[in-house]
Automatic annotation (TrEMBL):
The modification N6-(pyridoxal phosphate)lysine is found at K301. Its EC number is 4.1.1.15. Keywords: Decarboxylase, Lyase, Pyridoxal phosphate. Its cofactor is pyridoxal 5'-phosphate. It comes from Pueribacillus theae. GO terms for molecular function: aromatic-L-amino-acid decarboxylase activity; glutamate decarboxylase activity; pyridoxal phosphate binding. One of its GO terms (cellular component) is cytosol. Belongs to the group II decarboxylase family. InterPro entries: Glutamate_decarboxylase (IPR010107), PyrdxlP-dep_de-COase (IPR002129), PyrdxlP-dep_Trfase (IPR015424), PyrdxlP-dep_Trfase_major (IPR015421). It catalyses: L-glutamate + H(+) = 4-aminobutanoate + CO2. This is Glutamate decarboxylase.
Length: 489
């Protein structure tokens, strides 16, 4: 049956009879359909190049910059809303003045320190500020570096641990072929990558219901003379909990007094390194503990900078083996470097320094405290909801998690709730905990700077609506195990 249209024949300069040739029973491929409508699509703004283009090869001809911009922007229009993303730890909002600084400095290559000496000086200043914040005994003389994120910083910290262990074993005339490293089963995946990439045996201290983090007893059961280091996490990705760095350090001190084994600690403070100094200033976790030899943190998490910046700081200069440092002269000058990456924008380093100046310690406290207040408001509200049992409440990081009460329902689970919240635009992950708690599934919310109490109330309203809908079902939702995963870092 042929459709007819009553549109005036001169509207936008086309005649409807062309469109009326499309029949409801005629199957059209996307390309055919586009060609049928192309002459009439957005005619006021149409220009050469607005038509179709190859997806998986470079087009033969270019297009106007405005056209290319629109095509890329259209392509990502269906991406999630960053302001409703409660899965990611990564900063999604900065002030307009920071945006302006970003645009003005993104074309400077950070590695070219001879060409951009003032930028290099600011990077060095940030290292000193963080060394001081984390109580290095010699913040003006120790070693540190900016990185592309905490993953690179962890790799560098792990490499330094391995090289220090190898050098010590060589001096003692002992073999260096079987290094191991100890961390929690809830460790961030980068440490599993490190062990794999650099031929180090990973040893996991499994979490349990009573202690859902790496504990000293588990550490002592895992270490030996081949252990290059122990890596507690200050802000576990799964739950937001701080692992007990001071307790682990004390246990290793006692081990050394009994056996002579001197095992260093690297603290993965990807998230907590920019939270604990302000919200928990009395917590001892950093270089106040002599056994802590290095710390990494993500500037682009609670350091409040856009993605692309991490930091690694060593307690003292001698904690970074000299033979890991390279010196290059082909960019001008004689530049020492210890990194896995080379060329990258200066913008994020400058934004980190901007935040240090803009906020100061008092400002960082207020920003992080506001995020924690929102997290604890939401965690209490979810604790009071009948279906849920709170797992963590946001007392460490502004991150909380919860599980579905056992026996509450067989009609839906947290993966269903995660998908239902996605229909409102919210991205909230559900995932199983690591061994020995893989049978427990939790949901987790990360509160970041810019997530207001107003948005928290909106999220809570949508959560209640989602639960009410799921509770109204009279039969179980069919499940595909492949879809029952929504964890995001």
């Amino acid at each position: 049956m042929i459709k007819t249209y009553s549109t005036p024949s001169n509207l936008f300069g086309y005649h409807p009879s062309n469109l009326s040739r499309l029949t409801s029973g005629k199957a059209l491929r996307a390309g055919t359909l586009w060609k049928s409508y192309a002459p009439y699509y957005n005619p006021i703004f149409t220009r050469n190049g607005d038509g179709s283009f190859p997806r998986f090869r470079m087009p033969n001809q270019g297009m106007l910059p405005e056209t290319a911009y629109k095509k890329v922007r259209d392509e990502v229009a269906q991406d999630g809303n960053v302001h409703l993303n409660l899965a990611t730890f990564v900063t999604t909002w900065m002030e307009p003045s920071a945006d302006r600084l970003y645009a003005e400095s993104v074309n400077k290559n950070l590695i070219d320190k001879d060409a951009y000496p003032r930028t290099a000086a600011i990077e060095e200043r940030c290292v000193r500020i963080l060394a001081d914040l984390w109580h290095s005994p010699s913040p003006h003389n120790t070693m540190g570096a900016s990185t592309t994120g905490s993953s690179e910083a962890c790799m560098l910290g792990g490499l330094a641990l391995k090289r220090r262990w190898q050098n010590a074993r060589k001096r003692q005339g002992k073999p260096i072929d079987r290094p191991n490293i100890v961390f929690s089963s809830a460790v961030q995946v980068v440490w599993k990558k490190f062990a794999n990439y650099w031929d180090v045996e990973p040893r996991f201290v499994n979490i349990n219901r009573e202690r859902p983090y790496m504990d000293p007893e588990g550490v002592l059961a895992s270490v030996d003379e081949n252990t290059i280091g122990v890596v507690p996490t200050l802000g576990v990705t799964y739950t937001g909990l701080y692992e007990p760095v001071a307790e682990i350090s004390k246990a290793l001190d006692e081990l050394q007094s009994r056996t002579g084994l001197d095992i260093p600690i690297h603290v993965d403070a990807a998230s907590g390194g920019f939270i604990a100094p302000f919200l928990r200033p009395d917590l001892v976790w950093d270089f106040q503990l002599p056994r802590v030899k290095s710390i990494n943190a993500s500037g682009h998490k609670y350091g409040l900078v856009y993605p692309g910046i991490g930091w690694i700081i060593w307690r003292e200069a001698e904690d970074l083996p000299e033979d890991l440092i390279f010196r290059v002269s082909y960019l001008g000058g004689n530049m020492p470097t210890f990194a896995l990456s080379f060329s990258r924008p200066s913008a994020q380093v400058l934004l980190q320094y901007y935040n240090f100046l803009r906020l100061g310690k008092d400002g960082y406290y207020k920003v992080q405290k506001a995020s924690q207040s929102v997290a604890q408001f939401l965690s209490k509200a979810i604790h009071d909801m009948e279906p849920f049992e709170l797992f963590t409440d946001g007392s460490d990081l502004p991150v909380f998690s919860w599980r579905l009460k056992e026996g509450y329902t067989s009609n839906w689970n947290l993966y269903d709730l995660s998908r239902r919240l996605r229909s409102f635009g919210w991205q909230v992950p559900a995932y199983p905990l690591p061994p020995d708690m893989e049978n427990v599934t939790v949901m987790r919310v990360v509160i970041r700077n810019g997530f207001s109490m107003n948005l928290a109330h909106l999220f809570l309203m949508n959560l209640i609506q989602a639960v009410s809908f799921l509770n109204s079902l009279d039969r179980p939702i069919p499940h595909d195990p492949k879809r029952d995963i929504s964890f995001h870092h």
